[in-house]
């Protein structure tokens, strides 16, 4: 399970960037900007928590 977590975070970051990009270029879907930011923040927080737990 430990090897799956970094891959999951990478996939979340890529998904966040793609959704963020769609949100910028499609005016009707501006709410995707917020979703992209939330996914990116969650992925970064998860990565930080994983690194802190592995060092303890």
UniProtKB/TrEMBL annotation:
<keyword id="KW-1133">Transmembrane helix</keyword>
<keyword id="KW-0812">Transmembrane</keyword>
<feature type="transmembrane region" description="Helical">
    <location>
        <begin position="31"/>
        <end position="49"/>
    </location>
</feature>
<feature type="transmembrane region" description="Helical">
    <location>
        <begin position="7"/>
        <end position="25"/>
    </location>
</feature>
<protein>
    <recommendedName>
        <fullName>DUF1328 domain-containing protein</fullName>
    </recommendedName>
</protein>
<keyword id="KW-0472">Membrane</keyword>
